[in-house]
């Protein structure tokens, strides 16, 4: 049984639902004071706080799907904060981190931040400083997930199109006029308009401006280091680089 493909608008609603999930602030610190402090600070927020005394407890519970951030002590008896950071990086988990530690020097702080930490705070913690750091980390995670959701929508939408439709979209991204597109594709202007309507209908777009915006997003996404095999299992996609207004024939080629 065939399943109908989602339109751009329907796909957007699904991804927006994912982004609407309340963030979780994970705390990994053998000292329970840190977890209690974070819970008190976030009492008025619709956020979840999960505190763990060890790295093993954290990894046993963390699935990688929850939006939010990680507040962690550098010195943990089983898995150090740095080891947690490296392990998350190996798993391609980019959970923003706020380090809290009793002893920290400048070189260590710089090293941790180069590895992806948002802040390195020294104990005893100041409430306002910790709250600001958590809020910033959660905002960074939300922005990243929003960007990834946008890219995912573009991938899903491009995968819905035929080769000719992808070819048409690539020309729209180059700001080609109807007449220029017709000449490029060796078809009449009427056929271009029909193809435009067909693409807009398939993607759930309501105007030419929405189509242009989508085409530009697709160009930005797929003209730079994208593995097109991700779009459909077994498919081989490539994109000939295009600079809007300065391209000869930019196409999605299957």
Structure description:
- The chain contains 10 helices and 7 strands.
- The chain has helices spanning about 10-20, 30-40, 55-60, 80-90, 105-115, 125-160, 165-175, 180-185, 190-205, 210-220; strands at about 25-30, 50, 70-75, 95-100, 115-120, 240, 250-254.
Report a brief summary of the structure.
This protein has two domains: 8-151, Response regulator (Rossmann fold, 3-Layer(aba) Sandwich), CATH 3.40.50; 161-253, Orthogonal Bundle (Arc Repressor Mutant, subunit A), CATH 1.10.10.10.
List the helices and strands and how they pair.
Blueprint: H1 8-19, E1 24-28, H2 32-41, E2 48-52, H3 55-61, E3 68-73, H4 81-90, E4 97-101, H5 106-114, E5 117-122, H6 127-160, H7 163-173, H8 178-185, H9 189-203, H10 208-222, E6 238-239, E7 252-253
Parallel strand pairs: 1-2, 1-3, 3-4, 4-5
Antiparallel strand pairs: 6-7
CATH topology name of the largest domain? Rossmann fold
Q: How many β strands by DSSP?
A: 7
Strand composition percent: 5-15%
CATH class of the largest domain: Alpha Beta
